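SEQUENCE-TO-STRUCTURE ENTRY
===========================
What this section holds: a protein sequence and its matching fold, both as plain text.
Tokens: labelled as protein backbone structure tokens, with as many entries as the chain has residues.
Question of interest: how does this chain fold, as expressed in backbone structure tokens?
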Amino acid sequence: MGEVWIRTISNSLVRADKVTEIASTRASLHDDQGYALKVIVDGKAHVIIDDGGLPGSFTERQDYARHLEDALLFALDEAREADASVVVCFEPETEGWALSPASELAGRIPAGS
């Protein structure tokens, strides 16, 4: 079984097994609208999504952010079942979580492919 990593908005990676909390805020980092989604590792926040353009009321934005938190948990569970190391990242085009083999991101092709 491989490791699971989460890609942040700064394109860094954090180990999923070190995450102690998944949290969202009611506004993006740079705007009073939208939302931000982050994971906490060793007491430090790592932002995964920062969307200042999400329309809607405060309640609608919070509900959407909670939906993405839940979807991230399901993506992490799916990634943990993989044999190889996997990177989980948010895809803004699909507004969903994508799983990529870490070997592809490193430019290596897995054996047997």
